[in-house]
Design a protein that fits this description.
Length: about 350
């Protein structure tokens, strides 16, 4: 069974599954899902909790022993397995499938990890796990879904925003749902009647999305020009050091250039393995490599070199317009360049 994180509390009120797969790219939704499952489990007598990380040092025998224990001589247990950033490979997936089959009725298994690739979602081990339990989808809502997400969060807190307030909250907090949750909690205290208008928001909340250089890089890789410019404006307003941005994007450009050159002789999946690109980042790099030719990448590096020269020598000349130019050019589509199979 698949359920979105926002709907998990309703599902838990109906019944508790023997297995939960809490997977996605949104830390707030992952954290809230974990807490909700644990609270419900405690209500039903799962008093003991054991947490494991599925890295190379994990002794899976310890996990098997826990999952097969009965409550005759011990408390009912919640077993939580954290999947590392590198994700779930086929061997680990098979192990998790075998583990799920060995669960005793007094053990609740919760697996927490990053968003899966399409190939992983279609794998036999994942289909088996999601059939046995509940797959909690913890994906960050995109900008088109964010207003709906904001409205739902407001309803849960008894807040009544008008349409303009919803749009403003979505724009201010795009990319940082933790900040959104904190802002809404603050608003419940400031306005007991729950009414939220544009005027009230401007009086109570500051325009700090807390974007980072990495949010900017991800937007550039995806080719999302408007989002990249919005993040860049926010970073400029927070007076982030431009050299941090230059160094961050410089590393990505050099890597993209090397990967693009390697594509002449190697398949893209092998290149991703060679550069240790995480599974959840591969779609971003694929999009960039399809969009950017060798000549375009070299041109972007030249633009970046100009920006670095300005930072180091022309202290009075603003650097932000050049970074904005680089953002636009990075996202501009070229003729589609097919990736090798």
């Amino acid at each position: 069974m698949r359920v979105y994180a926002e709907k998990l509390p309703e599902t838990l009120n109906r019944s508790l599954a023997p297995l939960y797969l809490v997977l996605g790219n949104e830390p707030l939704l992952i954290q809230e899902s974990r807490i909700a499952i644990e609270h419900k489990a405690r209500e039903l007598g799962f008093e003991e909790k054991h947490q494991f990380t599925a890295d190379t040092s994990l002794d899976w025998n310890d996990v098997y022993d826990r999952c097969q224990s009965m409550s005759l001589f011990s408390q009912r247990q919640l077993i939580e397995i954290d999947i590392p950033e590198s994700g779930i490979n086929a061997a680990m997936g098979k192990t998790l499938g075998t583990l799920a089959q060995s669960l005793s009725p007094d053990v609740l298994l919760v697996i927490v990890g990053n968003k899966l690739t399409k190939a992983q979602e279609n794998s036999a081990w994942f289909k088996e796990l999601s059939t046995q339990g509940c797959w909690v989808n913890c994906l960050t809502p995109d900008l088109s879904r964010l207003p709906q997400f904001v409205t739902k969060r407001c309803q849960l807190l008894g807040l009544k925003p008008d349409a303009e307030a919803v749009q403003m909250l979505a724009q201010w907090h795009e990319g940082n749902l933790f900040a959104l949750a904190q802002s809404l909690e603050k608003l419940t205290l400031l306005y007991p009647d729950g009414r939220l208008t544009l005027v009230r928001l401007e009086e109570s909340l500051s325009r700090h999305n807390h974007f980072t250089a990495f949010h900017w890089v991800d937007a550039l890789l995806e080719g999302k020009a408007n989002r990249a410019q919005r993040i860049l404006r926010q970073l400029a307003s927070e007076e982030i050091e431009t050299i941090i941005l230059i160094r961050t994007i410089q590393k990505e450009l050099f890597q993209l250039l090397s990967m693009r050159q390697a594509m002449n002789t190697q398949p893209i999946n092998l290149i991703f393995e060679q550069y240790r690109v995480w599974q959840n980042k591969r779609p971003l790099y694929s999009a960039a490599l399809q969009r950017l030719s060798l000549n375009k990448l070299q041109h972007l590096l030249q633009t970046l070199a100009q920006a670095e020269l300005l930072v180091k020598t022309q202290y009075s000349q603003p650097i932000w317009p050049l970074l904005q130019q680089l953002s636009v050019e990075f996202c501009l589509p070229e003729a589609n360049l097919p990736l090798p199979n």
